[in-house]
Amino acid sequence: MEELKRFDIAEWNGIAMVVVESDILPPDPALVVIPLLPDYPAAKGLNPTIPHKGQPLVLATRLVTSVRRSALSRKASAAGHADEITRALDILLTGV
Predict the structure, then answer these.
(1) What is the pTM of this model?
(2) In sequence order, what DSSP letters do the residues of 17-77 get, joined into one string?
(3) How many separate domains does the chain show?
(4) CATH of the domain at 53
(5) Where is the signal peptide (predicted)?
(6) If phi over 0 gives left and psi between -120 and 50 gives alpha, with beta otherwise, what is residue 61?
(7) Quick check: is 30 in a domain?
(8) Is the pLDDT of residue 25 over 70?
(9) Half-sphere exposure of residue 24, counting CA atoms within 13 Å on the CB side?
(10) Is 74 exposed, middle or buried (0-12, 13-18, 19+ CB in 10 A)?
(11) pLDDT of residue 2 exceeding 90
(12) What are the C-alpha distances in Å from 29 to residues 64, 67, 71?
């Protein structure tokens, strides 16, 4: 199984998710992710749009969760959107 890294796009039960957990944390069976959804209401800054498989998907930042690492499979990378994803988390946690 390929190791997942921060900003990788993985899938769980057909749902695309972005890994947002730092790569320097000690290993854990769970991994912190944010779902990418096609029809999620977007708020400026909080929910950037990230393309995946030719489709624009919304980062559903408020739905941040954890999933068992073993249940995820890597599909792509959203590293090109790292600043937008980090900014969305900052807005979620600090409001700015």
Answers:
(1) 0.95
(2) EEE-S-TTSPP-SEEEEEEEETTPPP-TTTS-EEEETTEEEEE-GGG-EEEEGGG-EEEEE
(3) 1
(4) 2.30.30.110
(5) none
(6) alpha
(7) yes
(8) yes
(9) 0
(10) middle
(11) no
(12) 17, 8, 10
